[in-house]
Write the structure tokens for this entry.
Amino acid sequence: MFNPLSNRAKPANLEALQAALQAALDAADQDELAGLRRAIRIVEDFVPAGGAAGVDWARNVLALAGIDPRTAEIKAVRELRTARPGLSLKEAVALVKALTAQAG
């Protein structure tokens, strides 16, 4: 995926930016959804795959896709890797396992 922002410095507070965009998405009307989802995907390019931010990202991606990682682990891994093409299989599996551990 082409990312015109990939050569720029990473913003300092990605979690706050993600939270603000997610809140806007949750309250958005139909006309705003596509633009907000695109903005979230751009911000996600700067968020590391692991850690709390990565797990939150994975939870949001799967929620938007309507996938429960506890019952559809392979589908969840596939969806995460589709959402972030550079995400390795190992990273995607780790994120899904982290989500299922939190839910279980």
Remarks:
- The chain has two domains: 13-46, 49-104.
- The longest helix spans residues 30-44.
- Helices lie at 14-26, 30-44, 51-65, 73-83, 89-103.
